[in-house]
Amino acid sequence: SKVKDMSAEVVDSNPYSRLMALQRMGIVNNYERIREFSVAIVGIGGVGSVAAEMLTRCGIGRLLLYDYDKVELANMNRLFFRPEQVGMTKTDAAVQTLSDINPDVVLESYTFNITTVQGFDTFMTSLRTKAFGPSKEGNGVDLVLSCVDNYEARMAVNQACNELNQVWMESGVSEDAVSGHIQLLIPGETACFACAPPLVVASGVDERTLKREGVCAASLPTTMGVVAGLLVQNTLKLLLQFGNVSPYLNTLSVLDELLPLFLSQGYNSLKDYFPTMEMKPNPHCSNGACLERQKEFLLSKPARDAAAARA
Ligand code: ATP
Ligand code: ZN
Questions:
Q1: Could you give phi then psi for residue 214, rounded to 5 degrees?
Q2: Which pLDDT score is estimated for 261?
Q3: Over 137-183, what HEC string results?
Q4: Where are the alpha helices (DSSP H) in the chain?
Q5: Strand, helix or coil at 291?
Q6: pLDDT band for position 208 (cuts 50, 70, 90)
Q7: How many CB atoms lie under 10 A from the CB of residue 196?
Q8: For residues 188 and 117, what is the distance between their CA atoms, to the nearest angstrom?
Q9: How far is residue 117's CA from residue 167's CA, in Å, rounded to a whole number?
Q10: How many Å apart are CA 180 and CA 203, to the nearest integer?
Q11: How far is the CA of 116 from the centre of ligand 1 (A)?
Q12: Which residues pair with residue 62 across a beta bridge?
């Protein structure tokens, strides 16, 4: 038989033991902290659903899932959803699959449009709910992942996160399905979504190739899988504080101290090219909450300098 010889190395059947090996190998200091974090995922489509599955398999503490749409047969060229789930809301179908994969994760399903007045209000309230882990002291979630496919929804996430001083990551895939990007947004510290046209800057793709209303966009499970992988890899680095970090990007947010070196990561599948760049906030940003956060960040400079000197 092909049964592995277990005598040399004890490998138990608990999936967490493989994750805990990250700690033994010196990659992560305290992997178990993953169970204390809450992550909100807005848009449970080609990227968001895969990101949710990855975080579920990694043992994240709590996932808040937002989407107004239902599963369609046309979604079957992507990963995650199954034909028998057609007609279910994406959030409910996701909860069904994810709770089977890992019953330890607290899953919350929010089925509404975040861009309506009422939807935005419910979105804000849900992000503030302090129900879990160390988040009880601060915002209700540790990170927001934007996995939507349109400008209005990204602007709504941007508005909510600027108002709540909430760190978030943006993601997207181009209309022709061959490039994508992720971007880290720290209110007041990096460019917000209204400060610059980040999609274009990040991916180096022409703005005209981004998804437009009424256009039948192409999609590939491969590009969406890569973007979801980049998004969750950087989520883990940010929450568990490992990997490529830049000491001068000191934030006073819940995440504190160490942040990944990149702020924006593009992916061009045709050229196998991953351009990286940083984006400073725009002092003339049209978003009022962004300007307030920028002011606070500047005022906190002496405290940050003192902390850096002590370190
Ligand atoms: P396609 O447009 O190619 O048919 P899709 O609509 O599933 O696919 P994706 O890019 O795979 O698009 O996923 C984006 C997800 O974000 C969708 O599930 C969509 O319903 C969700 N979404 C977009 N805007 C909002 C919004 N304002 N509120 C809640 N969810 C949203
Ligand atoms: Zn801004």
A1: 80, 0
A2: 36
A3: HCCCCCEEEECCCCHHHHHHHHHHHHHHCCCEEEEEECCCCCEEEEE
A4: 15-24, 48-57, 90-101, 117-128, 151-164, 198-203, 221-240, 288-299, 301-310
A5: helix
A6: very low
A7: 18
A8: 25
A9: 22
A10: 6
A11: 15
A12: 38, 106
CA distance 162 to 175: 27
Tens-place pLDDT, residues 4-41 = 554 445 566 777 788 888 888 888 888 899 999 999 99
Question: Regarding beta strands 106-110 and 264-268, do their DSSP bridges make them parallel or antiparallel, or are they unpaired?
Answer: unpaired
Inter-CA distances, 170 with 23, 203, 267, Å: 28, 12, 14
Residue 173: φ, ψ to 5°: -130, 140
**Ligand nearest, relative to CA of residue 51:** 1
Tell me the torsion sign for CA atoms 256, 260, 262, 265: negative
Q: Tokens standing for 286?
A: 């049209």
Closest ligand 1 atom to Cα of 75: 7
Closest to 65 in 3D by CA, of 2, 108, 129: 108
Ligand nearest to the CA of 287: 2
Would the ipTM clear 0.85, i.e. be above it? Answer: yes
Task: Kindly give, in sequence order, each residue whose CB lies less than 8 Å from that of residue 125, ignoring residues fewer than 6 positions away.
Answer: none
Which amino acid would we find at residue 311? A
Amino acid identity of residue 150, one-letter, is: N
Inter-CA distances, 19 with 14, 57, 59, 134, 235, Å = 10, 10, 9, 21, 15
Distance 156 CA to ligand 2 centre (A): 13
Q: Is 69 in the pocket of ligand 1 (CB under 6 A)?
A: yes
* Cβ atoms of 215 and 291 closer than 8 Å: no
| Pocket-testing residue among 148, 155, 176, 211, ligand 1, by greatest number of atoms within 8 A of Cβ | 148
Ligand 1 center from residue 254 Cα (angstroms): 29
